[in-house]
Amino acid sequence: METPIPLNTKPPSLNSHSPAELFPNDYCSVKPLAGDSSTASATAGVCPDINLGTAECDITCSPSAGPLCFDAQQPEAAFISTDLKYEIWAQELVNDPDKDFILTGVQEGFDLIPRDATVLPALTKNNKSALRPGAKEQIEGQLSEGLSLGHFATSTTLPTIIVNAIGAVPKRDSSELRMIMDCSRPFAASANSYMDLDHYKYVTVDEAACQAKPGFWLAKIDLKHAYRSVGTHPNSWKVTGMSWHFEGTASATFLYDKRLPFGVRTSPMIFHRLT
Question: What is the pTM of this model?
Fold first, then answer.
């Protein structure tokens, strides 16, 4: 019979990295379930300084080329936008069976599409959900903030990539809206149509419970901007295009997303394997 653990026992330190270190650029709250020690995977780092005025490749491109240089970009030449710090992940995943996939994604950006995929240009108008009064201001604010943080990059000309529709969905128990990409249109030529998705399933509560034993400490971590902490590979940016007419500008601005987007078919699988 297991010896009962006194209620005043201090939980062990299961992770050498504090939540503040793991999530320096995100809001992170830890909700104790049984004890107060976090067992979360390590994520940390600082967004690199991004110069949005020039194309991110080391070949000759015009200052406004932006996504037009996708086919020539390499991971070493492009500015990967991520909050994930490779050194900490490498320490945490020494014995993890999925470490090769995770560490490659942390270092080079995760692949939304195969790196050798050929993508045909497509343009879809933004959804009405993002353009109605009240929503438009929020979406424009999120785009402006993302540009300043280097999560998005711009092109002053129509990029030869897939330009997805921007939509907005309400967050639960909040007046805040979440910006999403509608990557399911146009039919048979959408961003999602280029994505191969192997079968996978989420870990269930029952499976997690089977791993717990007497003396284990459990905790719940809530990330406010979970997907937006994760960078994507430059070869995938050609399917994350967007268009937005910013207030006070004469014409639409074309952008592409360098972080893990909501609405992309492979995003849930990538983040599930990451966590």
Answer: 0.70
